[in-house]
Amino acid sequence: MNLNDEDTLRLKKRLIKLDKPASFKEIENRTIHQDIFEALDYLPDSFVDLVFVDPPYNLNKTFNTTSFKEMKSEQYEEWLDSWVAKLIRTLKPQASIYICGDWKSSGAIFNVAKKYFQIQNRITFEREKGRGAKNNWKNCSEDIWFCTLSDDYHFDVDAVKMKRKVIAPYKDQNGDAKDWEESADGKYRITFPSNVWTDITIPFWSMPENTDHPTQKPEKLVAKVILASSKPNDIVFDPFLGSGTTSVVAKKLGRRYVGIEIDEQYCCLAEKRLDAIGNEKNIQGYSDGVFWERNTLNEQMNGNGKKNKVELSENLYANRLL
Length: 322
Ligand SMILES: C[S@@+](CC[C@H](N)C(=O)[O-])C[C@H]1O[C@@H](n2cnc3c(N)ncnc32)[C@H](O)[C@@H]1O
What we know:
CATH architecture: 3-Layer(aba) Sandwich
Mean pLDDT: 90
Distance between the termini: 29 Å
Oligomer: single chain
CATH superfamily: Vaccinia Virus protein VP39
Strand content: 15-25%
Shape: globular
Bound molecules: S-adenosylmethionine
Structural class: alpha/beta
Number of strands: 15
CATH topology: Rossmann fold
Helix content: 25-40%
């Protein structure tokens, strides 16, 4: 999805900027076009159930009108600390916090997260896109630190189970399938999700969710986080919204959202993506209430119950949201 000049003119009217303390109603389901260092102090207390944070990693990277410069790990830690400290006030006591990073940023994130949160886990996902390196291992993974404010938090493991092809279809003494089922398309098992995610596809040109944002996160990845760590109607907050993935997935899954992004074009892109949802609540790789392995679209669309896109989104609605 791209923006044209007409889109920008139309969509930028919806963006908000905060110059005094805001009520929750003023920011509910909105995109705040502002530097987080200006906006965070004006957000209400204790309104957030789930934060998904995908900050600039400790790399030289240009995000349209702004750039992030790689710094020493200690400085990056100070930068992280400067906004994480301001975030705490906005969280409900049972909130969950997910923070993304690559291998270079991950240690600094851990050091800051342990100061403020209870660290529950580190998810590592396989990131297939990227170039090989001549003198190093190709960088193919990223981390997401899963933290909470206390040990009292919401986690719905049943909402994020995986449907995997069975490689060894064991049977019990009676000859019945052990933990797996046979369908027209093969043998499948519904499994508990682990902290290693190998089913994620980074958006590419032919995926409907793809935009020009240089570091867009996949909707499937954010859907796992939102389904596991929030309930319908909860409030999901993303302080580095980028192209809007978190707000889009929150809306598709019947959660409320708030996002902050410094770049106007990215804010407008987020709004355009939110508009485009309509009845199209599909999340690629998630259907029938389970997450599928990579490259299984055919099985999802045809094999298991011959579902079409509309049926899939209707099911999503019926099973998860109402
Ligand atoms: C890693 S990207 C997030 C991508 C996003 N998860 C997505 O799926 O599109 C980080 C974003 O933070 C924004 N950003 C950087 N510094 C910021 C600041 N001080 N305040 C608000 N946004 C900022 C950048 O413009 C960039 O879009």
